[in-house]
Each structure stands twice: as structure tokens, then as C-alpha cells.
Amino acid sequence: DVKVTQSSRYLVKRTGEKVFLECVQDMDHENMFWYRQDPGLGLRLIYFSYDVKMKEKGDIPEGYSVSREKKERFSLILESASTNQTSMYLCASSSTVFPYEQYFGPGTRLTVT
Amino acid sequence: GQQLNQSPQSMFIQEGEDVSMNCTSSSIFNTWLWYKQDPGEGPVLLIALYKAGELTSNGRLTAQFGITRKDSFLNISASIPSDVGIYFCAGSGGSNYKLTFGKGTLLTVNP
Q1: B21-60, pLDDT tens digit by residue?
Q2: Cα A91 to chain center, whole Å?
């Protein structure tokens, strides 16, 4: 079974702090994704990576950056956390081969106060 | 960009009832996926559909890939309390491995 793990289930940070969210997958998938999920807005893609050190902006990249130094690990960075970044953050991975099924981690509930 | 309309937004049903939800797209998709998300958890893949007209079952769940390739539906038969959660559809088109997600259907099952 595919396993995607995220470093924290719950995080509380203060405004202005630098926040790191980490994601690890064990299926040797090339693609990894970061989404945020907010009520009424569904899942929105922040960034994705299709290879080590390669990344592309998603639909809402502002205020976020990412790092992928190893194939299995994809990190989301909030350089200076703000209250409007309070959300559920979901990591996913998939193969580059059809049918591109994405497998999700359990999520990190981030609260910025 | 591609958009997915998922309906209904929410459903309140009695245990034992059947449930149906659907997604329609403005674009053609090559893959339709259905996920379930339990409260406070990440989405879990339930069913994947790869061919127009395909009908696939997973236990009490049945999903179909529409003939036009622009829609899909998910049925749940004889619902039970643990079916509670948010059900998402997702689709991908062409060689693009990014998924487009519906906004989800919140299912509540009254015992």
C-alpha cells in the first residue's frame, strides 16, 4: 500500500513565524503535491514537484515556497506565517505514468494566531 | 481552466438508504477518481475509472465514467453510519497529471 506521511497532525504557530511542513512518501513516486483545504473552497493546489529539485506553482503559491531535495520528501515552507494561512494542509504523491492516481497523507491542521 | 461541478453539496439520509452523487466537467477527462475524506483525515481513494462507459464497484460503492467523458457518478447502497464523510470527485485530462477536484459532497447518515 502507498503510504504518505506528514510530519505533524496539528500545529499552532504565531504570526510571522517560519513554518515547515514535511511530507514523505514510500512509493518512489515522481510527483508530489501540496494542497490546502478550506470549507467551501475545496482542495486548492499550492505547489507541485515532478522531480527532485523541480517544482511548479499551483493555483495559490503566494506566501509559500517548497523544497524537494530527495525524491521521497517534499517540504512546504511558510516564510512568515499569517492568520489567513490557517488551514488544513494536505500532501499527495503520484506516479508520472497514467492513470496518475494521487495518494494523500493524513493532513496537517495549521493554526496561525 | 477546467472546472468540476459536484452535486449535491450535502446530503442527510437515514441508515439503509441508497445515495447518489455526481460530477460534471466543462472538459473531457481521461480518468475519474472518487475519494472519501473522514473528519480530520486526508482523502482516501475509493474508486478509479479509466474508460468511458466503465462501471466499477467496490463493495457497496459503484461508480461510472460517463459516455461523454464529461461526467461521473457514485452510488452508495444500503448506507451505514461509517459512510459519513466528504466524498470528492477528481478528474485528469490528457497527459496532465494534475487533478481537478470537485468541492465535495458532505454525507450525513442518521442511525
Answers
A1: 999 998 899 999 999 999 889 999 999 999 999 999 999 9
A2: 4
pLDDT classification of A97: cutoffs 50, 70, 90: confident
Q: What is the pLDDT of residue B1?
A: 54
- The CB-side HSE value for A40 (13 A sphere, CA atoms) comes to 0
Sign of the CA dihedral with A94 first, then A100, A104, and A110 last: positive
Measured distance CA(B19)–CA(B79) in Å, rounded: 7
Q: A41 to chain B: which residues are within 8 Å by CB?
A: 103
Q: Return the residue matching grid coordinates 512546504.
A: A76
CB contact (8 A) between residue B31 and residue A100: yes
> How many Å apart are CA B108 and CA B106, to the nearest integer?
7
Q: Which of B66, B46, B68, B67 is nearest to B57 (CA)?
A: B46
Residues of A with CB under 8 A from a CB of B: 4, 31, 33, 40-43, 45, 48, 50, 90, 94, 96, 98-107, 109
Give the bridge partners for A48, in sequence order. Answer: A33, A56
Paired with A36 in beta bridges are A44, A89
Instruction: Calculate ∠ Cα A27-A28-A29, nearest 5°.
Output: 90
Single-letter amino acid, residue B31: T
Q: Say yes or no: B78 contacts chain A, CB-CB below 8 A.
A: no
